[in-house]
From TrEMBL:
The keyword Transmembrane helix applies. It comes from Promicromonospora alba. Signal peptide: none annotated. It is found in: Cell membrane. The chain crosses the membrane at residues 43-62, 68-90, 102-122, 128-147, 168-192, 204-225, 258-284, 304-323, 335-356, 362-386, 398-419, 425-444. Pfam families: Sugar_tr (PF00083). Keywords: Cell membrane, Membrane, Transmembrane, Transmembrane helix, Transport. Residues 1-23 are annotated as: Disordered. Gene3D superfamilies: MFS general substrate transporter like domains. It comes from the Bacteria. Residues 28-449 form the Major facilitator superfamily (MFS) profile domain. This is MFS transporter. Its main location: membrane.
Length: 459
């Protein structure tokens, strides 16, 4: 072991001959939860703005509203292309120097990029016709880099500090950041939309949620800087098992696990971004085709956002429920049954969307309930596929490659299928097809509940 690594190990362990210090349970819960809440808040305010204001603000020269929307979603997808790169970049340092420092860096990257988005002039500003969309793409790319490194670090912070037999339960804490971030972001947008005129909101009001993320970043940094390194990484240091190039090692020794993890997450990603981004656009679109845009449900924007928030409450509740279920029945069996339910759920899009307010709210509740049940165990499942000394990189690469195949293209494909069919029927078929792929991946993957977690390393 190098002198610096030995020093790090000694410091983290509390001194020579002393047992490793641990992070208190409450601190682990808060640090893993608050970080992902901030990261997903930042990510969702962009997703909401991409649906509601960015098409006209940054792409005013597009041919029609549908082209504006597709252009906005194309930039939305840039972050998903950046996320695998972020998982490699931050995974390298997370497996080399530790989880804590890397998590602080990922949070700063995401936070600074989000604040800068709130400062970009509109494309109609003189001299910014081409620069505004370009800067938006650059900031969106940085957001993706940050989130690419955030998720796996937060998952390891929770699961590598978990007591025996409770990794899936602890793993639900960072996952809970997704519904919390969504509710927070959309509540802020609702408040602004209510308090401001449409002109004020489009002119400057949309910037407030992006700029306000600075406060959340400061809080997140304060919590994370008080953490100790995780026990599993301290054991990697003590065993002199730190790898020089984690990404090369993980692709050489664990490429099958990367493929499995990528497709295990596929249905989760497609489901979530259909339930949020697509349903919002379909819900607020006029009931008759206009200017090349397909017909939707005709809801007022704020009314549909409240319906989404109600659905996301179920997302949060069933994220927590999924942890004990995955511990009791095993991750694989739990996810197989949930994925079968997602396949069947894809066939409900047309009848439920056509059933009025109750049908639409039922669809949102069912979709987000399934989202909680499938998303919750992932913070345990994906890291359990990889050895400790490449776990940050391996789990992050699998998670974020899946984001490219699932989330990056899901809104774009859904809008195109909706325009082609004039209804969401093909969107439901798309969801079911992606869930079938996930089901096959699960059937070909072993159970990971009892895997050795703190001591296994790749050779």
């Amino acid at each position: 072991m190098s002198t610096s690594a030995a020093s790090t190990a000694g410091t983290a362990s509390g001194g020579q001959g002393e047992p490793p210090a641990g992070n208190p349970r409450g601190r682990v819960v808060v640090a893993s939860l608050i970080g992902t809440s901030i990261e997903f808040y930042d990510f969702y305010i962009y997703a909401t703005a991409a649906s509601l204001v960015f098409p006209a603000l940054f792409f005013p020269n597009a041919e029609d509203p549908t082209t504006q929307l597709l252009s906005s979603f194309a930039v939305f997808g840039v972050a998903f292309v950046a996320r695998p790169l972020g998982s490699v970049l931050f995974g390298h340092f997370g497996d080399r120097i530790g989880r804590k420092t890397t998590l602080v860096a990922s949070l700063l990257t995401m936070g600074i990029a989000t604040i800068l988005i709130g400062l970009i002039p509109a494309a109609s500003t003189p001299g910014w016709a081409f620069a505004a969309p370009a800067v938006l793409v650059l900031c969106r790319f940085a957001q993706g880099l940050g989130l690419g490194g955030e998720w796996s670090g937060a998952a390891l912070l929770a699961t590598e500090n978990a007591p025996q037999g409770k990794r899936a339960i602890y793993g639900t804490f960072p996952q809970l950041g997704a519904p919390i971030g969504f509710i927070l972001a959309n509540t802020v947008f609702i408040a602004l939309s209510t308090a401001l005129t449409p002109e004020q909101f489009a002119d400057w009001g949309w910037r407030i949620p992006f700029l306000a993320s600075a406060i959340l970043v400061i809080v997140g940094l304060w919590v994370r800087l008080s953490l100790l390194e995780t026990p599993a990484f301290r054991k990697v240091l003590e065993a002199e098992a730190v790898t020089k190039v984690p990404v090369a090692r993980v692709f050489r020794t664990s490429w099958k696990q990367i493929v499995s993890g990528t497709f295990i997450m596929l249905a989760t990603y497609v489901l979530f971004y259909l339930m949020t981004t697509f349903t919002l656009n379909y819900g607020v679109a006029p009931t008759a085709p206009t200017d090349g845009a397909p017909a939707g449900l005709g809801y007022e924007k704020i009314d549909f956002l409240w319906m989404l928030i109600i659905g996301v409450v179920f997302f949060g509740v069933f994220t927590l429920v999924s942890g004990p279920l995955a511990e009791r029945f095993g991750r694989r069996k739990h996810l197989i049954w949930v994925t079968v339910a997602i396949i069947l759920f894809g066939g409900s899009f047309v009848p439920l969307f056509a059933a009025g307010d109750l049908g639409v709210q039922t669809l949102l509740i069912l979709g987000f309930t399934l989202m909680g049940l499938t998303f919750g165990p992932m913070a345990a499942v994906l890291p359990e596929l990889f050895p400790s000394n490449v776990r940050y990189t391996g789990s992050g690469v699998a998670y974020n490659l899946s984001s490219v195949l699932g989330a990056a293209v899901a809104p774009f494909i859904a809008v195109w299928l909706w325009a082609q069919a004039g209804s969401p029927v093909l969107v439901g078929v798309y969801l079911s097809a992606m869930a079938v792929i996930t089901l096959v991946a699960l059937l070909m993957t072993r159970e990971t509940r009892d895997v050795e977690y703190d001591t296994n390393v790749s050779a």
